[in-house]
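hiii, so i know i said id send this last week but things got crazy w the move. better late than never?? heres the sequnce for the chain we talked about at the cafe, plus the structure i predicted for it. fair warning i was half asleep when i ran it
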Amino acid sequence: MIDVQRLRVWQAVVASGSVHAAARHLGYTPSTVSQHVKLLARETGLVLATRVGRGIEPTAAGLRLAEEGSEVISSLGRLDHVVSDLRDGRTDHLSIACFASVAQTWVPEVAERLRHELPGVVLEVSISEPHGGRGRRAPDLEVASEAPDEAGSTGAAFVRHDLGLDPFVVALPVGHRLASADEVRVAELADETWIDNVVYDSPTLRILVEACRAAGFQPQFAARCDDHQATLGLVAAGLGITGLPSLAAHRLPDGVVAVPLVDPVPQRRIVANQRHLTAHTRASAVALEALQQLATQVRE
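okay and structure toks below
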């Protein structure tokens, strides 16, 4: 069995670029680091590094071992987290993975419900990030968005709960010609300057672009920002307009108004994927019920 501490030391050598640098970062002597590396090479039967001048250079096998070892160390980090909770008397926890607008608008109310009904529960929230980092728990609930016409693809480890549809609005500066309208036809925005609030390909961006294409034009983006709140700040500054789900427009900065979009009505489906292994827990049930009730408010 591979010694985990030696694996950690080897990862430090690869990340630091040298034995001496790794020794400084870890608080070890260079000879101690070198000894860990030699023992790890003996354990694995691999050539981890080759001598280059007065230093070493990781081999392809050494780099692969350092990379693959991250998953093992992350798993041990999660186990450390569990042990810490048990030692401190915290025997229940809930991990939620979600996108930013859910974290800002729904998670505080979910947390309040949990605090009221299960005062000892430990809540962990991951926003727009994959789970698997050191100490991070696998999600008990994943809140995700998808296009309404997409076939849901929940993995075998989860049970899917449809929370409903979230229609889009257009965010406009207060002085915009359409700012006082009750609703805006998508075609009326064909000549506008747009600001992308996603940057990376996502269901939200695809839904908006498809709505524009259905109205006969391709949106022209003058700026891209990977945060919808920062994007709304750019709208307030007059750099352009943006289209986003109504949940993401829950908190508008001064100088911005949100108007519903029609013809067509772009909308996303919000789903909650509940992990089978923890679905029986009271924490998971309470959080799911809270999410379902909050989603009902969006539809009303």
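btw The domain at 166-268 is CATH 3.40.190.10 (D-Maltodextrin-Binding Protein; domain 2). thought thatd interest u
miss u guys!!
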